[in-house]
Design a protein that fits this description.
By secondary structure, the protein is an alpha+beta fold. It has three domains: about 5-145 and about 155-305, no CATH class; about 320-435, no CATH class; about 445-510, Orthogonal Bundle (Arc Repressor Mutant, subunit A). The protein has helices at about 55-70, 185-200, 245-260, 310-315, 320-330, 335-345, 345-360, 365-385, 395-405, 410-425, 430-435, 445-455, 460-465, 470-480, 490-510, and strands spanning about 5-15, 75, 75-80, 80-85, 95-100, 105-115, 115-130, 135-140, 160-165, 175-180, 215-225, 235, 270-275, 280-285, 295, 305. It has a nine-stranded mixed β-sheet. The longest helix has 21 residues, at about 490-510.
Length: about 500
Amino acid sequence: MVMEFEPVIGLEVHAELATQSKMFCTCRVVDSTVAAPNIAVCPVCAGMPGMLPVVNRKAVEYGLRVALALGCQVNLTSVFARKNYFYPDLPKGYQISQYELPLARHGCLSIITSQGERMIRIRRVHLEEDTGKLTHIERWGENRSPGESHSLREGHSGGESYSLVDLNRAGIPLLEIVSEPDLHSAEEVRAYAMALRSLLRYLEVNSGDMQKGVMRIEPNVSVRPVGSTQFGVRTEIKNLNSFRALERSVDFEIQRQSATLLQGGHVVQETRGWDDNSDSTFTQRVKEGEEDYRYFPEPDLPPLVVTSEWLEEIQASLPELPAAKLQRFRSQYSLGAYDAEVLIAEPAVADFYEQTVLAAPDATPKIVANWISGDLFGLLNQNGDSIEGGRIDPRALGGLIELVVKGEINQTTAKMVLTEMYTSGASAESIVAGRGLRQVSDTSAVSGWVQRVLAENPDQVNAYLAGKETIVRWLFGQVMRMGQGKANPQVVQDELNRQIEALKVVRNSG
């Protein structure tokens, strides 16, 4: 009998806090993916001797918002520590973080998967500073990449490599959120990461732009025999910045560790990276233990003290959070679980939906949900736009939906109008009026079209009367085409049924 293994997974999430200045100095926060290197650096974040850090109050506030939203126990007094390790992008030779007494502990986050809802425990939430950024350069002979400065090449020849250090990111406030090892599949890991990203965006403390590295996820993965309560040896996958990479890397690591154990091998505790091209993880370094970091209290910073009054103010300022909004959308708008989850995942989408519902009073909330998650999302994805930056506002979409619900245009015409609204910015009403697209519901006009289609297609009519009833769909399409897509589908269907039934009566009586 082949032994089966159960994955045991915990996540460390590093979220850059959306402050204007860095964690311990007044340097402004810049987008390190587009800014010129080293333009937002001072002696403090560059780690110059004798420089003293000062805590960013806004970063603490943002950290407390997250801790409270996760239901954590906030420590009114917490302590910063020095985490000692040496790497080129860490200018001080240590990182200011929190260890023994973090900002908060013991929270939870609800996730929803195909197996239902689960609560994932949060072990700790703590503040720290980000590191710099390394760019690794490979150089071969006298070739250089487009745009490379010639001065960088002086004194170099042959194949070699070197690294460039950009300290723009060094010192940006980070919030590290560490879960308990409560996750047991790649699906659950993805659901947790998505739920946490949504929460951070609702709280407006992080943009959630993972491609820019403002939220980085590090899963700790181990496996153990099914039924065992002992933890296996874990590996940590570093700095994942997409949900796809997260899910795939965790799946790979579960399979790799399981196969290693089945073959009689041993899993090594180590840090691993993820290679998108080969769909596999790879060894980076043997994992350090906590003792290797030689944590000790930061001598240049006093304990961080949070007053009860300040904590109460922050608690009172929290917005409606995703879990509460999900329940409200389901009850207030009678939406199913899937529709509600899609609409509340992003705060901007949830706001857009509620404004559109108000702008389309004759439509059901379900109809509005279908238009947003279907046709509108399709246009946004096709054009690479977000709902905030899209060219259709809620009132405009509501106006279009109202025309459909009132029978003034049909569904097919409405989809065409939506596309034109998106490209031109014109209102649905002006497009419909200008192009003469208003739906024809006049029974006499529709009756004439049906009569003509039946007269011009005797073979199809006879086939229907002989029992091939599916051909009625083809006849329906011919009538709609004759009406140039403007005929009211329900009126067409009713009139087609009436005239065909009349022909059936005539045939049977003959």
